[in-house]
């Protein structure tokens, strides 16, 4: 697995390319009620005009605009009301010239009518109506196909379906959508010191937080997860990984990737005949991370330090897994923005450094009130409420409130 450390940009490019080369996930058809958050497996297009007819956007009167000529407060025009239309009605006849149709919001315009006058500019008459305003042709008309025309794209393949997509599809009378089946990711925390939450604590032991946190993030993004942990034994780790790979589409581990005497993941990957994607990233935290491929499945080996694991999960594993799940590449990559710091960070950065942060409205808060210790790789609580990483380039000095920084926003 020996390779020179790559840059963050190189690491992301390599895992995205590896993910894009994997087999396309299987598809399934699900009801629209269950489709929100799922990834469209094919292009979805409108099959009818929406609205399917010219309609009124307000309560009032459908008219021939020519019949409103000269109408005003002092010179009202009086017309007979020859029909009434509610939403859901279909006009039984055309509107004759010189006549009005009482019409409600959403109702179709009768043939011949070319405008709608709001009822506030009339006397509200039912058998005949006095109108107090002159209208131009097409005034207050929502035209057929104005929202979306038949054949127009709704969502390209690889798009995550949002509530708005679901609403548009439903408006087309489409009851379901073809989507990719969710990938299953195995999450394996390694370490002889680990206990599962709920077990009795013992001296020297710690509860596994990495595994459950990584699993929670993956579930939040729509993945199915199988989670377990094991001791620092290369044979056991290899057996657990091999078992997970028989049922899962990818595996994420935490712990055992550095250079300590019990950091066995590089050895385990060799035992599994894994092909490296990259081994090590020139950044802090998370530099020892490894990405590899076992057959047609990706494996991501993250640091056992909680923040290092969380940061590299967001930077590399999440984009690659979403790409493998069928998302369009542009929707897999953390969005880079600029933000102005409200708090600072007191240490210089010899190499590229990433800090957990909270971004809102162009402002970026680094937790810990500038205390570098709050950004230790082993600190987990400072991640709460964070939605991004601040990138400090190699050679940066301390940063102070008011400075503008590069922000990597977590993928949603």
What's this, in brief?
This protein is an alpha/beta fold and 412 residues long. The chain has helices at residues 8-20, 163-171, 210-220, 234-247, 265-271, 306-324, and strands at 27-31, 44-45, 60-63, 77-85, 100-103, 115-118, 128-131, 153-155, 176-180, 184-190, 194-195, 206-207, 224-230, 250-254, 275-279, 290-294, 297-302, 335-341, 353-360, 363-365, 388-392, 404-409. The chain is elongated and about 95 Å long.
3D structure, described in words:
This protein has 412 residues and is α/β, with parallel strands linked by helices. It has six helices and 22 strands. It has helices spanning 8-20, 163-171, 210-220, 234-247, 265-271, 306-324, and strands spanning 27-31, 44-45, 60-63, 77-85, 100-103, 115-118, 128-131, 153-155, 176-180, 184-190, 194-195, 206-207, 224-230, 250-254, 275-279, 290-294, 297-302, 335-341, 353-360, 363-365, 388-392, 404-409. A six-stranded mixed sheet has the order 13-10-14-17-16-15, with helices on both faces. Strands 6-3-5-4-7 form a five-stranded mixed sheet, with no helix packed on it. A five-stranded mixed β-barrel has the order 18-20-19-21-22. Helix 4 (234-247) crosses helix 5 (265-271). The longest helix is centred in the last third of the chain and has 19 residues, at 306-324. The protein is elongated and about 95 Å long. The two termini are 32 Å apart.
């Amino acid at each position: 697995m020996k390779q020179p450390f790559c840059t963050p940009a190189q690491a992301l490019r390599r895992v995205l390319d590896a993910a894009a080369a994997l087999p396309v996930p299987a598809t399934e058809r699900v009801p629209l009620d269950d489709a929100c958050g799922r990834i469209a497996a094919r292009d979805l297009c409108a099959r009818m005009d929406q609205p399917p007819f010219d309609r009124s956007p307000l309560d009032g009167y459908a008219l021939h605009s020519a019949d409103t000529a000269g109408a005003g407060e002092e010179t009202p025009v009086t017309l007979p009301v020859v029909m009434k239309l509610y939403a859901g009605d279909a006009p039984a006849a055309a509107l004759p010239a010189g006549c009005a149709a009482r019409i409600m919001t959403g109702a179709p315009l009768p043939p011949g009518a070319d405008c709608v006058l709001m009822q506030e500019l009339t006397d509200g008459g039912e058998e005949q109506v006095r109108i107090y305003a002159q209208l131009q042709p097409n005034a207050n008309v929502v035209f057929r196909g104005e929202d979306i025309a038949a054949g127009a794209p709704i969502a390209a393949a690889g798009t995550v379906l949002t509530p708005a997509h679901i609403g548009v599809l439903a408006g087309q009378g489409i009851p379901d959508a073809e989507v990719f089946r969710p990938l299953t990711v195995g999450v394996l925390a390694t370490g002889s010191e680990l206990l599962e939450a709920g077990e009795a604590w013992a001296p020297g032991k710690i509860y596994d937080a990495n595994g459950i946190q990584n699993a929670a993030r993956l579930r939040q993004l729509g993945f199915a997860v199988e989670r377990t942990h094991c001791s620092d034994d290369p044979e056991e780790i290899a057996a657990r990984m091999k078992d997970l790979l028989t049922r899962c589409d990818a595996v994420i581990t935490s712990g055992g990737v550095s250079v300590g005497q019990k950091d066995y993941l590089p050895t385990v990957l060799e035992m599994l005949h894994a092909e490296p994607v990259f081994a090590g990233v020139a950044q802090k935290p998370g530099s020892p991370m490894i990405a590899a491929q076992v057959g047609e499945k990706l494996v991501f080996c993250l640091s056992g330090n909680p923040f290092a694991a969380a940061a590299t999960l967001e930077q590399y594993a999440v984009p690659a897994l979403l790409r493998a799940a069928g998302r369009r590449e542009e929707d897999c990559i953390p969005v880079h923005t600029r933000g102005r710091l409200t708090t600072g960070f007191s240490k210089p950065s010899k190499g590229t450094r990433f800090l957990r942060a909270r971004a809102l409205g162009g402002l970026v808060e680094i937790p810990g009130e500038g205390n570098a210790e709050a950004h230790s790789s082993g600190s987990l609580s400072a991640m709460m409420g964070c939605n991004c990483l601040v990138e400090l380039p190699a050679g940066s000095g301390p940063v102070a409130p008011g400075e503008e920084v590069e922000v990597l926003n977590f993928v949603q």
